[in-house]
Amino acid sequence: MSATARHTYQVEVREVVQETTDAVSLTLHAVTGPTDSLDYRPGQFLTLRVPHPDGSLTRCYSLSSAPNSAMRPTITVKRVHDGRASNWICDNVAPGTVFDALAPTGTFVPRDWSAPFLLVAAGSGITPIMSILRTALAAHDNPITVAYANRDAESIIFTRELDLLAHCHRGRLTVTHWLESESGRPTEAALRTWLTAAPESHAYLCGPAPFMTAARNALDALGLDASHIHSEVFTSLTTDAFGTAPAPEIGGSTTASTATVELDDEVHSITWPADTVLLDVLLAQGLDAPYVCREGTCGGCAYTLRRGEVRMRENHTLDQHDLARGTRLACQSEPRSDTLDIVFDQ
Ligand SMILES: Cc1cc2nc3c(=O)[nH]c(=O)nc-3n(C[C@H](O)[C@H](O)[C@H](O)COP(=O)(O)OP(=O)(O)OC[C@H]3O[C@@H](n4cnc5c(N)ncnc54)[C@H](O)[C@@H]3O)c2cc1C
Ligand code: FES
Q1: Ligand 2 pocket by C-beta < 6 Å: which residues?
Q2: pLDDT tens sequence across 157-183
Q3: CATH number of 256-343, picked from 3.40.630.10, 3.40.50.2300, 3.10.20.30, 1.10.1780.10
Q4: Does the structural domain 9-105 have CATH classification 2.40.30.10?
């Protein structure tokens, strides 16, 4: 059984912008890898190997810049209390710092840019929201509300740009702030009075887990259909997405399905044991299938199921809208039909 080396490349920091006392934006440039190494869609994230005295850490950071714009790819990192990677980045990174990186990925990407957007963020959760907002304003004409919660006025990241955008797009863009220092914690009851959404709106939520739960429940209570609520969870990975993947365990199941898998413009025929996840089958065959966390949280292994059925062991990232479109996670999928047809196109 073969192990697979990941396709990694290096990115260099070109510019560091101090956004607040606790947050920096890093403008990046790919120094190795193909020219499209840093191509991304609004809402996607980049995976970095962050050096640390205790050993390097794999961390995901969403792009805050808009693709197809004059902006260079930019990530924005906020210190987490006692957090290892975020504090290392905020204290040490300077122009010229080089990181190992994995290509941008993720499923927190709007599909319908004509619907009204309700963009709800707390703290560093503004990062992918900013990418979506910048893209929508530049390339689409849907109405947008940004609802942004922070500890206090000094913690607001992108405060001047948000003010400026609201001013320039008056009538189309509304930006509202929630400050804990003035209004207390944004509980579900409080969010029910703060947030409003027309039934056709799509809501994009990003922030700490308790805030997201409160926001989702508030939007449910306001009658927004669950398939219109999309969220991105920020967690620290416990796995190492770089280097050589451990040789996967292929289960001892006597039942197996057959699948055609389209990956990097090549079609492969695989035998897929019923008790083994798709990612492990592909890695065992030496195929360079995409993945980051292998825990069902990041969406980095997402694919489209064109035919057949699978069961996902865990799913902490795909929403009902993604599932209805056929999106599934390779690191969590076991086959549940005799034949399947799969494409990695996310
Ligand atoms: C898809 C995705 C996108 C993301 N995008 C962004 C972004 O745009 N901007 C951003 O700032 N962050 C983002 N994150 C979060 C980021 O990846 C890191 O999780 C964050 O920077 C914290 O990492 P850290 O190493 O500093 O903290 P960690 O060292 O992982 O610590 C996190 C917290 O856990 C506590 N902790 C750590 N170890 C232990 C332990 N052993 N026992 C108990 N408690 C412990 C720490 O005290 C701290 O409070 C994203 C995450 C994901 C998954
Ligand atoms: S690799 Fe992160 S969800 Fe599968």
Answers
A1: 291-294, 296-301, 317, 329, 331
A2: 999 999 999 999 999 999 999 999 999
A3: 3.10.20.30
A4: yes
- Residues ≥6 apart with Cβ < 8 Å to 80: 86, 87
**Residue 81's CB: how many other CB atoms inside 10 A?**
7
- Residue 300 Cα to ligand 2 midpoint, Å, equals 5
Measured from the Cα of 64, ligand 1's closest atom is 8
pTM as predicted: 0.92
Residue 294 CA: nearest ligand 2 atom is: 1
Which residue's CA is the closest to the ligand 2 atom numbered 3? 296
The pick from 237, 295, 315, 346 for probing ligand 2's pocket by mutation, whose C-beta has the most ligand atoms within 8 angstroms, reads: 295
Q: And the tokens for 314?
A: 């865990």
For residues 38-64, give the mean pLDDT.
Answer: 94
Within 8 A by CB and 6+ apart from 25, the residues are 16, 17, 19, 64, 74, 75, 76, 77
